[in-house]
């Protein structure tokens, strides 16, 4: 249902590209109505549509290729890299298929799981590579079904390398990529966008360049949507290839694969694998500096930039595909110099959007998970339903249990030793915990000279927006109001504001002031007295680990705390303080004390017992100041509380 | 589904009357989530719950009794009276059952249709009387089914008067009100709230006062929810009656029926019908002044006020039921003097809310029908579904045809002769139409000395809010921008603002500036040129009677133009400019030229042809200024348009 509605909406949007469309009333009456405001048309398009729209708009783009990591730690690092490089605005990323690495399994290093994480947890449009040789039809169908179930929408269909030295055709098996393309189309209809590989110099095993072109045409005519090419060293190689493709009737997009040379050894290895020859003029430069990594990389960047410029200037190329070799520096540098790296401070929504098709209508989340979006996505991954952008008519929103704190995409980026340096090798009392919170806020080193750059509730340094509240936060954390989430009130800033803006331009964004913290029962008792004075202005929820819950929220209704008003749209309210989900968040927030902090220490050690004591006795509090046009009163509430305690 | 959710919400609301509730997390996890913000708890309660809540809060209330009119014109007048007296805040009204007037029929004067109109079009909680004698079981079940279908939720179960002089029991028939109460409970379970009549002096036909009390107890034990009494003349009569009821175990609410004496003859007639005796002390006052209507009414008001005060002061009485005899003055006066008339400038929503149970979750409407809410309700009466407060997943929102412009509740209050005086006995050209629009805006008399107090698109004088725009509106109407709907921009006024406020207190309301008008194609051509300059700021829809439609609305999405932010709530956006429903409104807006205006004149008369020309050639335009925090730019747009035309 939602799918149909959305499709009809995006269909109608294409008819108004001239800024004003004219139609008879009859046809307009047939148009359906979107049930959810479409903030970002992009979010609702399939990859081939995005490509077409960008090409029509003359808007150049890039994409990034990664291979799956070997180790679990490598996976954690790769996911952070996705987040960082995702910020530059790639149209998509792709993840290669490593037959030797159990690529379709649930292992955190498998191609399937890395692609799953990119789509669902990093919100990246993703192509999963898949090879077909040496696999049964059933294996392949199983992989494709799993990919679909996980929300993957794009497949790069490849043959793969032969098992032995020599290539032997299998009867009834998949011998060529074209077999895989046909299989996908026959089993999955139009669900997947399919990409195939093109070889600007011809495939090394092909009888001839011309024969290889004919193979490529077969793949396209079997249902491929676009082509990404093998790397090449000279722009004219690619441009000739495109011309030759067009000459035999290939009309789909052909995207050049760009390989910025990053080191002598990696180049040699790649050349060996791909059976390409490095042109003499490049060898001449590289050989003399082969031991100087920095020099080679600089040269590689120069070379790539100049080749990319030539390609883009040719008018034939609308997007560039980068072979990153899982490294950031060279590719980012090339993209920045080309002006393609677009770190837009504006967010489509105030939180990290997932690229799973079923979540494309999601437009509201509880604020509690603001610093743990991946955990929120994980705990709601089983929800099928986001009608009007939120969980549906379920009488009880079923949050998944969060037992496995070691899911690699939820894991802290910092190893145990580093966490101990930040949070204290040895705690001497609750006060030393207050100090850790305070150092995280101020950015000052702790008493042992280490900066606290993450907390169990937030794996990243303080958000720019939270920085606006830094002084007040420092003050209250010193005294045991241990803040884990907060936002200032905003009364109508432009949606393009670099710090608090989000959504399409031309709009206005608003926030109610929010403060969430742990505090002792002594503080909470005083706070409750103070809150009586603010009964009509401040909504509160106060809960301990046992679930004892004190609130003045009317009728268990959610309170909108972030919203935006945009031209020609319904109102979006992407974050709410929701009394029901707060109790699920409470379980997670309290558990993080133990799972991420207490367990750093020996059992029954004094440090561990201090954290355990806080876990058992403190309350988790959230406060909302409903009077967003006035000065935030939450600091006054906290001051009054401390005064009462004195 | 919606019902269940809502019930669970209101159930949970009762547990927080102390402003803070405490519960374990397990029970909270079971709580369901409201899919729609509950703005006004009242809207979701049944009548007996409202009574209980008001009694618990010590909040005195009143209700009003009306009888169905004899003529169609009487029906139009009664409906206006409902609207005016509804403004004073009655807890409910009730409509008597006139067996002689075909009470269950679809005639505009039937009890059923008057009650239907009160509920659905005036938004009043309504009790429909129903008598049972001389009717078959099937007739009665049919009436009850119809009442349920129309959204009526409360029945006053009565016996009714015998057909002949003497009362004869019917075997297997309904002989007493208690039979009707039992029948309703057995056939409709708990759907209806049931009221029964109590006789403070005993029913005139009862064997004795005591026997009558026993009959009353039977009716209550058969399932009645509360009692309204026959009129009486002395407070002690009522207070004794209540005590006697309680003594035999009647515990439900007993509401005194108050009859403010309004004239000598009406009093005599009522006394005759009800077989009551007027106390001597009242006769002594009335007889000498029996020809002085004003004096009798003044005395009646005095008497009623003093009796009501005594009743309220007794502590036994929480609500007063008024026999209005379909008149306004005396009852309104009594209520105002008692301080019970509560004309709250704040509206629950910016538009007239319907009291039909299925519409209780409705919280958004297209702005086009702002001045014709009854028409909107009529045209959407078949919608079953208001999920999240709006029309649902229907691919095409099915608006009913508006062919019958003579439905009494949609009819102009003014007769033809008055309309001709206002809108011109004879039109001389388009300019004379411009003049009518201008006079409606300014409130100045037209060239023949008549004030224009209504227009085909708006049966009432200019709204207070629109008055804010009066000067600009006058200027543009003079020049042929014929405005039919507009609102100023509002950037966060308190929800208690007497002019633009709505919803619960403590909130903030917002609006985007809106302007809707008819204009010639010459003006529209210039306007479209001007609008290019405002492309990013102003959304427009321009359509003619044939449905030629020009718009820059993105993706056919609705544009929120009124919204409110409230403590502890999700955001409410009660009015939108919706591109789809605009085309349905267009049909109605153009048809009103012909149906209400052109048809005042002879066929082929010049006046009629002028209106017909406008109908055939003008465009209907709506403009929204999305930049609500800035000064409204729509006047500049119009000025620029006129400048271009010069």
From TrEMBL, chains A, B:
InterPro entries in alphabetical order: FAD-linked_oxidoreductase-like (IPR029041), Fadh2_euk (IPR004621), Mehydrof_redctse-like (IPR003171), MTHFR_C (IPR053806)
Tagged with keyword Ribonucleoprotein: no
Any one of the GO CC terms: cytosol
Keywords tagged on the record: Allosteric enzyme, FAD, Flavoprotein, NADP, Oxidoreductase, Phosphoprotein
Signal peptide positions (record): none
Chain spans, region Disordered: 1-46
Cofactor dependence: FAD
GO BP: methionine biosynthetic process; tetrahydrofolate interconversion
Catalytic activity: (6S)-5-methyl-5,6,7,8-tetrahydrofolate + NADP(+) = (6R)-5,10-methylene-5,6,7,8-tetrahydrofolate + NADPH + H(+)
Sequence similarity: Belongs to the methylenetetrahydrofolate reductase family.
Stated role: Catalyzes the conversion of 5,10-methylenetetrahydrofolate to 5-methyltetrahydrofolate, a cosubstrate for homocysteine remethylation to methionine. Represents a key regulatory connection between the folate and methionine cycles.
PANTHER family, per database record: METHYLENETETRAHYDROFOLATE REDUCTASE, METHYLENETETRAHYDROFOLATE REDUCTASE (NADPH)
Name of the protein this chain belongs to: Methylenetetrahydrofolate reductase (NADPH)
Species this chain originates from: Tyrannus savana (Fork-tailed flycatcher)
Lineage: Eukaryota, Metazoa, Chordata, Craniata, Vertebrata
Gene: Mthfr
